[in-house]
Amino acid sequence: MIPPLRIRAYSGIPTLDEYFKGGHEFLDILINLCQLKSNEKVLDVGCGCGQMAIFLTKYLSNVGLYEGFDINKAAIGWCNKEISSRHRNFTFSYADVYNKYYNPGGYLKPSEFKFPFQSQSFDLVLLKSVFTHMLPADVENYLSEVSHVLKKGGRSLITFFLLNDESLEHIKRGVSSLNFRYDMGVYRTISPYEPEAAVAYDERFIRGLYDDCKLEIMEPIQFGSWCGRSRFLSYQDIVVASRL
């Protein structure tokens, strides 16, 4: 179950080496950092080409459950055809949510979109490289929805580009893989014309949103290599939190 290149490229993982390396890496992170159990219910927001779903088919048991949704209709179509047909506890749905960079024709506003699931439905919610392409009002709404669908004591794993003294210094020195030169207040972007292409957030702003949404960050934040750090867990910054 390997997605074709046209589907993988949309998710930013065109090579098979990146596909397998990233899948193995985040499966290990979900198990070891989030304590994911094989019988739990997982929501994958922005599931893309089903990279994590494919690796989770080898880990989740028959009583475990996976739900994924994405704004790319072709990717969701492939996932339903190739994954759901083989694994009945894996379900994918299309969300026609607007994104200037990834879905400019989207009908639904991301600042108003409601996750199509009941309250406290999931043990774990994953957003991998989603908030790195969303603006503040949209992030605030999605984080509130994450809290809404998480069971009490459930965990979320969300990746970011976080701006703090260390990452800002690396950006200033020119060693960051992304320059984030356009300062928009609580966030920076690499493009003033398509800001969703890559978005970095002030760490203090993000921490405040977590507090507002009753999500307790499980310290420490696992900062990534994107800005040029020598010590890191992954490329993007990883925030794991539990629902209060």
Describe the structure.
The radius of gyration is 17 Å and the shape is globular. Strand 7 and strand 8 form a beta hairpin. The mean pLDDT is 95. A seven-stranded mixed β-sheet has the order 3-2-1-4-5-11-10, with helices on both faces. Strands 6-9-8-7 form a four-stranded mixed β-sheet. With 244 residues, it is an alpha/beta fold. It starts with a helix and ends with a strand. The longest helix is centred in the first third of the chain and has 17 residues, at 16-32. It has one domain: Vaccinia Virus protein VP39 (Rossmann fold, 3-Layer(aba) Sandwich), CATH 3.40.50.150. Helices cover 30% and strands 22% of the residues. It is built from seven helices and eleven strands.
What is this structure, in a nutshell?
With 244 residues, the chain is α/β, with parallel strands linked by helices. It has helices at 5-10, 16-32, 51-56, 73-84, 136-149, 165-173, 203-212; strands at 41-45, 65-70, 90-94, 122-127, 150-160, 162-163, 182-183, 187-189, 199-202, 215-217, 237-243.
